[in-house]
Design goal:
It is globular and about 65 Å long. The longest helix has 24 residues. The two termini are 35 Å apart. The chain has 11 helices and 7 strands. The chain has a 7-stranded parallel beta sheet, sandwiched between helices. Helix 1 links the parallel strand 1 and strand 2. It has 285 residues and is α/β, with parallel strands linked by helices. It has one domain: Rossmann fold (3-Layer(aba) Sandwich), CATH 3.40.50. The chain binds nicotinamide-adenine-dinucleotide.
Length: 285
């Protein structure tokens, strides 16, 4: 299906006058990178943040230059780093209207440790970096007094939180925790009109995605089941800006599937055809 993303258009000015922080852009395939470009297109001003080790790869400078953003190093597993970063962003940008959390990492997956044999130190790191970091980011942003009333916070997640995908291993657990933190904090910040949601994106070809064994099969499976097919990172970015915008002021504590219909689809005609070709009709050998 043709990519219908707005990437080359002038946008709608949905984020005009808004400021934000975007965590997790690593290279130009990163979903956060595409979201940064869409936020720029829609008129936002923002800070970019990533772990110092990721910044050393050097690619984020290009995005900063293209979007006029400043870069703030921050390892989200380090509380002091997050606190300092929020203070630094505040003195540079003042208060902000949106935050994107696009951070995920599992040392167990990286080192191909099976779920039944999880290394618990790594497991803690997975949960800390991929889920608890959302709590930290919101906590320290709030503590720094940086969040405007009506702000919108989005974290990217995956359907592994609801349905187990074997090769996604402990990231299934991390995403379940991430989504719960979004709901929990959303309920607490609602009195200031602040929204907290997760966007559950389909498999997307990025560095994090490519690190998962069997990713290509997972990608193809989702694409063949989803009636609209898998959305790419630019399409995710278009959706994300609507959640940052004032058009969605009463949407909070939701897990929003952005997956071409995969989450509620059972099987597609294409899959029935393909599986029949492999296994034959009922009664056949
Ligand atoms: N790619 C997919 O198929 C897919 C699908 C659904 C959801 N997601 C989610 O989207 C988000 C972005 O992932 P992506 O696919 O764009 O891959 P990516 O590798 O481009 O982004 C992951 C980011 O997390 C950052 N990170 C890791 N450890 C960190 C730390 N300690 N401190 C700060 N940042 C740290 C990395 O540097 C990187 O920028 C993740 O939460 C991922 O789980 C991805």
């Amino acid at each position: 299906m043709e990519n219908t993303a707005m990437a080359d258009s002038k946008g709608y000015g949905l984020l005009k006058g808004k400021k934000g922080i975007i965590f997790g852009a690593l290279d130009e395939r990163s979903i956060a990178w595409r979201i940064a470009l869409a936020c720029k297109r829609e008129g936002a001003e923002f800070a970019l943040s990533n772990a110092p080790i990721a910044l050393r790869l050097g690619q984020l400078d290009a995005l900063a230059e293209e979007t006029g953003a400043k870069i703030f190093p921050c390892d989200v597993s380090d509380n002091d780093d997050v606190a300092k970063m929020m203070a630094d962003v505040k003195s540079e940008y003042g208060s902000i209207d949106f935050i994107l959390h696009a951070i995920g990492m599992s040392p167990n997956i990286r080192k191909k440790v099976e779920y039944g044999e999880l290394n618990y130190h790594f497991f803690n790191q997975t949960l800390d970096i991929s889920a608890i970091s959302l709590h930290k980011v919101i906590h320290y942003a709030d503590k720094a007094g940086i969040l405007n009333d009506g702000a919108s916070i989005v974290a990217l997640t995956f359907i592994g939180a609801q349905r187990i995908f074997s090769k996604y291993s402990d990231m299934n657990d991390a995403k379940a925790l991430l989504e719960s933190i979004a709901r929990n904090y959303g309920s607490r910040l609602a009195d200031r009109g602040i929204r907290v949601n997760t966007i559950s994106q389909a498999p997307t070809k990025t560095s994090a995605g490519a690190g998962i064994t069997g990713f290509d099969a997972l990608y193809t499976y989702a694409d063949k089941i989803a009636p609209l097919g898998n959305p790419d990172a630019d399409e995710c970015a278009d959706y994300c800006v609507t959640i940052f915008s004032d058009l969605t002021r009463k949407v909070t504590m939701q897990n929003l599937f952005h997956d071409g219909g995969f989450a509620t689809a059972g099987i597609s005609e294409e899959m029935i055809f393909a599986l029949t070709k492999i296994y034959g009709e009922e009664g056949e050998d």
